[in-house]
Amino acid sequence: MRTIKFARGRNLAAEICSQKKGKKEVNSGASAMGHPVVFLRRGRRKIKRAGVSLTRILAIGTILAGLWSAAVAQTPLAITEDSLPQMSAGLEFHTLLHATGGAPPYEWKAADALPDGINLTADGLLQGRPVKAADEVTLEIMVSDSAHPAHTAEKVFHTSIKAALVFDWKQPPKVQDSRIDGSVKVSNGSHDSFDLTVVIVAVASDTNRATAIGYQHFDLKPGENDVQIPFGSTLPNGSYVIHADAVAEISAGDKILRQRLQSAEALQVAVGP
How far apart are CA 258 and CA 267, in angstroms? Predict the structure, then answer.
């Protein structure tokens, strides 16, 4: 006689045997913990058949899991993008990264430090507002899938951060007699129009008093480059540091960009002999 224990509250042998015609001989007792102990005289064949069916189900599940793992292995995890859009300093940037293969969902992260102002979410959204322009920027991105163990893929992107508002000296300030003259140049490297204000002041070294020697306010269209703005004025005898400020307002996104220049050294104005 074989003794088989089943979970509390269920007499599987009795249920199976009850499906046969005729009287079934089933004796059951209780263990010290209250679990039924079923003594089978008949119906062993059905118990055996039930065991075989369960084994087959488990085997099929194992086969299907193996096939799924093999399919995942045959489709390597990879990052879809070949390049990233160019970024502009001071302007909002966002792009959603994509992956193929492996076992979704995916988790994204940066394998190395990102440029200041840029971050990457776990969902693959690369976003932010770059702080500084750079001719070449390297971003190393990593993605992992949900397999056990997880598969990973990496890709290195090379891009640049363009200066949306480019502001520089065209002719650095210089002294001529009692005057300081020069010019600046400004460019719009973005896709938005700028409401641009440029102010140039001479700051006296001894008193820190600022005297305006140049001013312009105009619309700078996207793609306009090296627009020249001259400045100059007669100044009293003294030493001066020249400051030039450019402020671009973008009405579409309520954004403000700023750039500042300063003369390399103080300029001396000498009036008279």
Answer: 25
